[in-house]
Amino acid sequence: MYRTHNCGELRLENVGQKVTLAGWVQKARKLGGMTFIDIRDRYGITQLVVDAAAPADLVELATSLGREYVIQVTGTVLERQSKNAKMPTGDIELGIESINVLNKSVTPPFTIEEESDGGEDIRAKYRYLDLRRPPLQRALALRHRLAQEIRSYLDQEGFMEIETPYLIKSTPEGARDFVVPSRMNPGQFYALPQSPQTFKQLLMVAGYDRYFQIVRCFRDEDLRADRQPEFTQIDCEMSFVEQEDVLNTFEGMMRRMFKNALGVDIPDPLPRMSWYDAMDYYGSDKPDVRFGMKIHEITDKVQGHGFSVFDSVPYVGAICVDGAASYTRKEIDQLTDWVKRPQVGAKGLVYIKLNEDGSIKSSIDKFYSADELAAIAEYLEAKKGDMILVLCGAKRKTQNQLGVLRLEMGSRLGYRDPKVFAPLWIVDFPLLEWDDETQRFYAMHHPFTAPKPEHEQWFYSDKKEDLERVCANAYDFVLNGTELGGGSIRIHNADMQARMFEVLGISKEDAEYKFGFIINAFKYGAPPHGGLAFGFDRVCALFGGQETIRDYIAFPKNNQGRDVMIDSPSQIDQLQLDELQIDVRPQSAE
Ligand code: ASP
Question: How many whole angstroms from 266 Cα to the centroid of ligand 1?
Answer without folding.
Answer: 24
